[in-house]
TrEMBL record, chain A:
Subcellular location: Cell membrane
Sorted UniProt keywords: Cell membrane, Membrane, Transmembrane, Transmembrane helix, Transport
Protein name: Energy-coupling factor transporter transmembrane protein EcfT
HAMAP family membership: EcfT (MF_01461)
Cell membrane recorded as keyword: yes
Membrane topology annotation: Multi-pass membrane protein
Subunit structure of this chain's protein: Forms a stable energy-coupling factor (ECF) transporter complex composed of 2 membrane-embedded substrate-binding proteins (S component), 2 ATP-binding proteins (A component) and 2 transmembrane proteins (T component).
Coiled-coil region: none
Protein's UniProt keywords contain Nucleotidyltransferase: no
Amino acid sequence: MLKDITIGQYFPGKSLVHRMDPRMKIILVILYIVMLFTGDNVGSLIVGIFFLLIAYPVSKIPMKMVAKGVKPVIPIILFTAVLNMLFVDGKVLWSWWVFKLTQEGIQLAVMMAVRIVCLIAGTSLLTYTTSPIALTDAIERLLSPLKKLNLPVHELAMMMTIALRFIPTLIEETDKIISAQKARGADMESGSIIDRAKAMIPILIPLFVSAFRRAEELALAMECRCYRGGEGRTRMKQLHLCGIDFVGLAFVVFCFALTLITNTLLPSMF
Amino acid sequence: MEQDVILLADHISFHYFDDNERPIPVLKDLSLTVNRGEFVAVLGHNGSGKSTLAKHFNAILLPETGNCIVDGINTREENRLYDIRQRVGMVFQNPDNQIVATIVEEDVAFALENMGVSPAEIRKRVDDALKSVGMYEFREHAPHQLSGGQKQRVAIAGVIAMRPDCIVLDEPTAMLDPRGRWEVMRTIRQLNREFGITVVLITHYMDEAAQCDRVVVMDDGKILFNAAPKEVFSHVKALHAVGLDVPQAAQLADELIELGYSLPPDVISEEECADALAALLDGAGIHPQHQA
């Protein structure tokens, strides 16, 4: 049961987007987010949607994955939309007690909802098309200038790699411990929430003990393989920017330019 | 045999402290040499100090007294620590706890990346190492998709990639199923024979020890026997006394000798045992029925 959990929601593939340099993908996602928040009118939102309509088919990720990504934040979207609709000043369409529904409020609510959906869909595309290890690697390299400020960039990336490596191992172990405790008569399915939380203790304690033991052994094994931190380390896989990365960059810059144009042409809605 | 010593433990002693800060001696004035290209098994029951000895060979632990010399380098020389670790690779019991990366080839590259080898050279050595343990076709798998024996072979590849002169394996088959054990043993033997890598195999499986050039039996921090498997396993009583078994064939031969039958005292494999028994039966006038 626990084995089905996938972390990072990566969909392996060989599309153009999959083959892009992960560093470039991270930069482009950041650019896209900035673009979404720079745009302040209907035109700029259309540009944001236009980007997704091109990027998703190119990466061969089905559009329904957008819905899957948005699902968990629907309550937040609805909450902000309702607040926007009811508390923004403007031309009153309908009012009751302290609440008044305004035209500007409705516009803003729709804009914000679309923006958040675009934001999630755009960032999910990064994790859908980039393996966690490639992401970690890219983050390490993008942040490497910060090493000069004595930030432990390599160490953070190493911790992320090890965490990713041990997720399946620890999940398997959790399964085993649950079975072992059930065989000893542990009851995990009935009772109140508090009872069930208490039932987790005999699972978590052995899990923690074993995780510490594993950590100790892993540290020893790493030392035996000459690990001494990030200094003087080389990497087998070098990241290279190639044609497709610049095509991607050109496309995002193009969308950004469109957004800025719409900003000057169309009236601001915020 | 060429007398080129690669590992030398020269009168080393070591102790741990228990919970009450009392020292517990683990190694007691122990001396051992391993020659280049040798395949040595270290046997001993739990707590005999065999793992502690192994950790001295790549400077994880330093002896309290005495010296440990690896390929001419004293393990006390701190500035040559990584030279030593690169020369003596170490493989541990649980493959899950030695694999660092989420992809097989990335893990094999780990040691080389630490050593600062150039990317093209890393690629070449990783491929070579994976081929030499027969895991090349799994290079892009995630470790958790592999069986125990496969994971342990990846761990061995990760060490082999450093091109060590010697590998020390601390009970590498203890957590594996019979098939995994067989795979790992075959890989180790192959590395020893084809690539001339010195192997120190710490084990508690007698049949694994019987495949080695030399068996070192440890008990209570000291060396009890240090000889060829045939000679060591003929001391059935002494081995039983320190809580060790002998291969079943040796056990059977020993009990027959005890009963007064004349068998050669150095029987350790099933084939040798069958031959010896056949000779005995022939002598008693019992012959295979289908023989003319």
